[in-house]
Queue: 3 jobs
Job 1
Amino acid sequence: VQLQASGGGLVQAGGSLRLSCVTSGRTSPYAMGWFRQPPGKERESVATISWSGAGTFYADSVKGRFTISRDDAKNSVYLDMNNLKPEDTAVYYCATRTVFSGNYYSPADFSIWGQGTQVTVSS
């Protein structure tokens, strides 16, 4: 399985972007997620979604601004980002689990990763 992330770019503070991640294999029935790595920092969770889509997790820093969703018919997961802030600047990665059960909150819970897409928010 390979993941291809897209949709990053340069945006002004307060703007919006939509990240997309398409997999070469099935997204169902696995949890998927978006993560980011700011310059000089460790990779961190942004938002994750359960295999059914009924469960979602958001980092406190993005709650109310970001929304994760999935479309298994298109083997895709999305991240809608609104009211972007300079501190959201990072390389964003999508990832998928390859087992059905278990936690899906932290980067360590995910085993297959996309190549990343750069998001830069200017002040």
Job 2
Amino acid sequence: QVQLVDSGGGLVQAGGSLRLSCAASGRTISRYAMGWFRQAPGKEREFVAAVGWSIGITKYADSVKGRFTISRDNAKNMVFLQMNSLKPEDTAVYYCAADNSLATIRQGYGIAYWGKGTLVTVSS
């Protein structure tokens, strides 16, 4: 079992930055693909970014490309999401996710482990 704790959310003005963190416990995440999803009020949860267990493979939703960066520190068992140039439409609860398969993370279905989420609010 892997337990994920997401943190780092908060209130920020449009154009600002936030860094989300996901701390894993229970198992090393070095062989897991990791991802971030978000769910805005009244909307379905959507894929944001993913990183394969082999560092260097990353995937991003078109809406965040060039603004968000996902990274991982396997030694610390953590994953991060650096969010720059934030927009009001980025407001959502952000969830960390882990799975053996990067493809599963990317499709957003059947993912093995989820964090409980951290709220990001971007004011205009």
Job 3
Amino acid sequence: VQLQASGGGLVQAGDSLRLSCLASGSGRPISTHDMGWFRQAPGKDREFVAAISWGGGSTYYADSVKGRFTISRENAKNTAYLQMNSLKPEDTAIYYCAARRIGGYTDVRGYRYWGRGTLVTVSS
């Protein structure tokens, strides 16, 4: 499975962005995999942002983004999304999508496949 994240960019505080994660490749379809979004700010460890179960029925969020970010997926399009509203400078990071959960939903080591990431920069 290959994952390609897109949709990052430079925005001002308070703006919105929607990130997309397109899955491709052979093997089990992405619709059978739980998926997650993580981020890594300069000089910091990669951290959990949001996750969604394979059917979309369960979602999980980091406290820092709860109420501002929404994770969703369209299995027919092999795509997961992260809608980010009310962005803050502290949201600045490279955002990575991940698939095929092998551990906890919020665990950085809990996913088998990772995309390359897309940069989100929020100016104040």
